[in-house]
Amino acid sequence: MADIERHTIAVLVDNEPGVLARVIGLFSGRGYNIESLTVAEVDRPNGLSRITIVTTGTPMIIEQIKAQLSRLVPVHKIHDLTDEGPFVEREMALIKVAGKGDARIESLRLADIFRARVVDSTTESFVFEMTGSSDKLNAFITLMEPLGLVEISRTGAVAISRGAASF
Amino acid sequence: MPAEPLSGADIVIKALVDQGVDIVFGYPGGAVLPIYDALFKQNSLRHILVRHEQGAVHAAEGYARSTGRVGVVLVTSGPGATNAVTGLTDALMDSVPVVCLTGQVPTHLIGNDAFQEADTTGITRPCTKHNYLVKDVRELARMLHEAFYVAKSGRPGPLVVDLPKDVLFASGPYTPPDEVRHKSYRPQLRPDPARIGQAVEMIARAKRPLFYGGGGLINSGPKACARFTELVRLTDAPCTLTLMGLGAVPASDPHFLGMVGMHGTYEANLAMHGCDLMVAVGSRFDDRVTGRLNAFSPGSKKIHIDIDPSSINKNVRVDLPIIGDVGEVLSAILGEGPAALRCADGAARSEWWRAIDKWRARDCLRYDRSRRDLIKPQYAIERLYEFTRDRNVYITTEVGQHQMWAAQFFKFDEPNRWMTSGGLGTMGYGLPAAMGVQIAHPEALVIDIAGEASVLMNIQEMSTIAQYRLPVKVFILNNQYMGMVRQWQELLHGGRYSESYTAALPDFVKLADAFGAVGRRVEDPAKLDDAIREMLDIGSAFILDVAVDPAENCFPMIPSGAAHNEMLLGPEDEAEKPVSEEGMVLV
User: Quick one: B210 and B343 in the same domain?
Assistant: First the structure.
């Protein structure tokens, strides 16, 4: 299918047991894709968590995903950031590169260009911390592959709309 | 805060009573003993002891669908809860409001693989509208009241409230229902007024309109059904109903074309294929209705009225979605006045009706009436209908050929009279559902139109029927086959009847006797009327085992993967229109 779109959807839910299982079960049960999913409490007084889901599908499927999500009882609000105007999307990764000699120096040089921070180092390894768009993270990781990339931990995307408006 | 704290079990009873519950269908066990103890000490709630938890849920569904109220189930932990899962899934698919209370092991044992422990909220998450695990007795009353609110508002559905045993023993405050307001769940009931105007205009302009009503009409209530009928009559447009919607418009109304879908009438399906405006009201474009999607009603604009936004554009793209309670939406449409709704092009409308009359003249429900040696299943239902049409009758069914014949040949003039498992297709639904209907309507005539295979799936409920002296009638169309399976094997698998013949059926007359009911068997068409008369005259439970033509197939039929205009009208069509390979894959 040609008309597959990638959407970033923010969902505000009650922070209660099982709510993440409901969302994930909905995606697996109905055969929708999850590219990434992040969740954390964002409003303690009201007990609300924010789930950021990056998903792909035809426009009809994306519409279904939103309708099905809003059917879940603990869901308060849903925003399709992709549809609703400009937004900022960021992801963080911890990237471990092991090696010695020129490769090690080259990885440090590239990290500097990409504005990755060194958060751990030994004489034979670095752990880089990097924040940026998923594409930027992918680009950096690809560059690290020949330089001794051994392990990656990524958060998945978080996103928020630009400007003063909020939900 | 109320002065007296109550035990968790007493809170459960008080919450049920405050919700107006009068009947609970259940089965006791270790984890729910505190509730059964509390039940023992009160007189406001009546408990009906079923013989299997699946039966309890179907009985609650029958109760709910025939009264419009919430059905209530009480089962124990572990196997009690897992046995209820089929019923819960059935209620979810058919949008039936049910609250199911399940026992659970004490909170400190949860996750320890304790005796009769199951992850009930985990297992039932995909088969309920919502579920709760009550970990603190102070939350108990609120969660119970929320469960009732969620079950019956919006698109109705089943709720589970999982109750650990220590919570039932703990004491805590009781919160009355009027102090409970759900934090986030607010279904949209009132439609967007701008869309009402658009809908009215589309209806008035349509040359070949068709109203397509579903179970949402029944769920919205008799008033919604009356408004739907009024709109159909006012606009002089043809109307069809889904399996779940039967009775929303009187079957005797000349605007009614019969049921739509796989075993719907020729005229309903061709009208759906040929209309230029389809108004879907509380129906969900299910695959049994649409047939092949890329050939579904190709020339029509579509208005879709539904309370559930996720029903919109799920299977079929529609032109004008209207979210809201169908009763409210229909009132708003009717509120625009008869002049605005009347057809603008009378000549085109007459032509549309002439086309429909031509399709009607095909008499698609005809069957071979010449056999004197065999009872045709269609004939059996026609006779049953003739004997019961003027009575206060409720019909339930099991699942299969008999269900489709009942839908085709039994005519419903009122909503809430027809209880069947549509979405899930649960064999074994009809007998316990009939039990629930009879409990709700003790004076009514309640008949389970059954197949001999389906009815065996929950036959243990005959014991419940005996215990409460329920005069439920079981009308078995006995063809010795899982008839619908056999029909598909004939059409799709070269007549290889793999495991669809039941070689060792019980003697249903003796079976009735064993359960304290009356049983009769009839094989001769000439004796059918007398047998039905006897069944209706006797004031007790009755099984009528009607031996019917074992080879009869259910027509008309849209074979899977086919379009509405590719119907099989009878056996003579079978050879000419073989099922496509893509169709074979579909169910």
Answer: yes
Residue B412 lies in a domain: yes
Range of the domain at B494: 377-547
Report the CATH fold assignment for A5-80.
Answer: Alpha-Beta Plaits (3.30.70)
Question: Within 10 A of B235 (CB to CB), how many other CB atoms are there?
Answer: 23
Same fold, A5-80 and A88-159: yes
Question: Cα(B54)–Cα(B38) distance, rounded to whole angstroms?
Answer: 23
A44-96: per-residue pLDDT in tens?
999 999 999 999 999 999 999 999 999 999 999 999 999 999 999 999 999 99
CB B105 within 8 A of CB B76: no
CATH code, domain with B122: 3.40.50.970
Check if CATH label 3.30.70.1150 holds for domain A88-159: yes
Q: Is residue B583 part of a domain?
A: no
- Counting the structural domains of chain B, the total is 3
Is the pLDDT score of B1 beyond 70?
Answer: no
- Neighbour-count burial for B35-69, b at 16+ CB within 10 Å, e otherwise: bbebbeeeeebebbebbbbbbbbbbbbbbbbbbbb
Q: Average pLDDT of B386-394? A: 97
Residues of A with CB under 8 A from a CB of B: 14, 17-18, 21-22, 25, 29, 60, 63-64, 67-68, 70-76
Active site residues of B: 53, 115-116, 165, 484
Q: How far is B80 from chain A (nearest CA, A)?
A: 22
Separation between Cα atoms, residue A157 and residue B9, nearest integer Å? 45
In a domain, B171, yes or no: yes
Tokens of B79: 């196997």
- How far apart (Å, rounded) are the C-alpha atoms in residues B406 and B448? 10
Give Cβ neighbours of residue B210 (< 8 Å, ≥ 6 apart): B237, B238, B239, B240, B271, B272, B275, B277, B278, B279, B300
Where do the domains of chain A lie?
Answer: 5-80, 88-159
Helix (H, G, I), strand (E, B) or coil at A18: coil
The rounded Cα B410 to chain-centroid distance in angstroms is 15
Looking at the fold, whether B135 and B225 belong to one and the same domain comes out as no
B98 and B230, same domain (yes or no): no
Task: Write out the two tokens for B446.
Answer: 């309640």
Query: How far does B130 lie from chain A, in Å, by closest CA?
Result: 6
**Residues of chain B found within 8 Å of residue A62, distances taken between Cβ atoms:** none
* ipTM field: 0.91
Domain boundary among the residues B130, B148, B179 is at B179
Q: Supply the Cα-derived Rg of chain B in whole angstroms.
A: 24
Residue B17 lies in a domain: yes
Q: Which residues of A touch B130 (CB under 8 A)?
A: 72-74
Q: Which residue, B329, B360, B391, sits at the end of a domain? A: B360
pLDDT, one tens digit per residue, over B400-449 is 999 999 999 999 999 999 999 999 999 999 999 999 999 999 999 999 99
Asked whether B579 and B288 are in contact (CB, 8 A), the reply is no
B560 pLDDT band, cuts 50/70/90, is confident
Q: How far is B527 from chain A (nearest CA, A)?
A: 51
By Cβ distance, the residue of A21, A67, A74 closest to B309 is A67
**Triad A153, A159, A161: Cα angle to 5°:** 165
pTM: 0.95
Is the separation of the CB atoms in B387 and B533 below 8 Å? yes
